[in-house]
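Postdoc handover notes: sequence design on the structure in folder B. Input C-alpha cells:
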C-alpha cells in the first residue's frame, strides 16, 4: 500500500493503458458481424451512339441588319523634332 501511495501516477497510467488495450482487443467487431457490401453487377453498356448536332436555322441575309463600317482614323501627327544641341567649350 505504501508503494501505491508513493507511485500513484504510474499506477493510473498503467491502468489506463490496460483498459485501452482490453477495449481495443475485445471491443472490435468480428468479420462475421459486419454485413458484406452488396454490389450490383454492372449493366452491359449500349454501343456508342454518334452525337447528334443541334441544327440551328440560319437567318437569311436579307433580314440581317447592315453593320456600319468603322470610320477611318487619321494617323497621329508625329511628335515635334527635338532642337539640335550646340556644343560650347568652357575655358577657364
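Designed sequence:
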Amino acid at each position: 500500500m505504501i508503494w501505491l501511495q508513493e507511485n500513484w501516477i504510474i499506477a493510473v497510467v498503467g491502468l489506463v493503458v490496460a483498459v485501452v488495450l482490453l477495449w481495443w482487443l475485445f471491443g472490435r467487431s468480428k468479420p462475421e458481424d459486419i454485413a458484406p457490401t452488396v454490389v450490383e453487377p454492372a449493366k452491359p453498356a449500349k454501343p456508342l451512339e454518334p452525337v447528334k448536332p443541334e441544327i440551328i436555322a440560319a437567318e437569311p441575309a436579307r433580314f440581317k441588319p447592315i453593320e456600319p463600317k468603322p470610320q477611318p482614323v487619321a494617323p497621329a501627327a508625329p511628335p515635334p523634332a527635338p532642337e539640335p544641341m550646340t556644343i560650347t567649350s568652357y575655358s577657364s
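Context for whoever picks this up: Residues 8-27 form the longest helix (20 residues). Don't rerun without checking with the PI first.
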